[in-house]
Structures are given as C-alpha cells and as structure tokens.
Amino acid sequence: MRAKSLVMATLMAALAAGPLLSTPARADDPDPGPAASVPGPSDPVEVFQTGGDYVHFSSTPPATASAHGWWLDSDSRGAKAKVTVDLQVKDGGHWHTVATGHKTVKQGGGSARRANARFTCVGTKKTTWRSVVDVDIIGVADSPNKLETPARTYRCGVG
Known about the structure:
It contains one helix and ten strands, in the order H-E-E-E-E-E-E-E-E-E-E. The chain has one helix spanning 8-15, and strands at 20-21, 49-52, 56-58, 64-72, 80-91, 94-106, 115-120, 126-137, 147-148, 152-155.
C-alpha cells in the first residue's frame, strides 16, 4: 500500500537536491492513517522505500509541471507494484490534485520503472506544487502511508 512519510533527516538531505526516498515502511506501523486496513501480526509484511522527485517545471513547449514516483526493495524478487503519482497544487491553504499518473513497475526507478504525472500549464500565474506518491506492491501486505514531496513554486498556472 503506501510507504512511510519522510523523516526529518531524509527531508533535510533531500532539500539539497536530488530524489526523495521515504524511510522503510511496514504494515505494523503504529499510526497507519485513517480507514487503513492493516494486516494481522501473522501476515507477511513487505519493507520497501518509496521514491519521488520534486515537482519540476518544463519550459519546452508545451510548458508543463511534472513529477515521478518509484519504489526500491533489494528483496523484491521480481515483484511489481502499482505506483501512483498525484500532482497537486495549493489553493486557499488546501491541496488539490490536478493530474494523476500510474504505472505497474518492478522496483528500481529510472525511465522504465517509474510513474509520471504531468499537467500542461495554463498561463504563468505563480502556483505552489507538490506530488504524492503511493506504492501498492501486488499481492503483498504493506503500509498505507504515502510520500509527499516538498512544495515548489513555479510560474505555471492551473487556470
């Protein structure tokens, strides 16, 4: 299901640049979030990391906001996961999803093993963006947590 949110040390390191990785997630997380379905103690639990990059702006026509998401697990043994990326904008203090992308991939990242969400800019109004990455490993119990990337502001309006 979802990978655990960033811990402060990971966030500080990620702010320097580069991709973001969550801390490993477990289904027995004491705070699984609202309406979560957590497996029982005897169920196998997958530990993995969710990765995502900052929302970035492409100035090549057409101008777009874009974000990627992937997962990492050295013990995945060929497993696949459905990776979903929600591209969100902040409006009036609330986050709203304006685009969603998903792809079923093996772990690892890179252009062939990641999901992408894109939104074509409508005008040049300054807009604050973030992405939310959700990883659901197929056939395996995992955490309901999601990775939220830090906000970035670009001159890329939503209309």
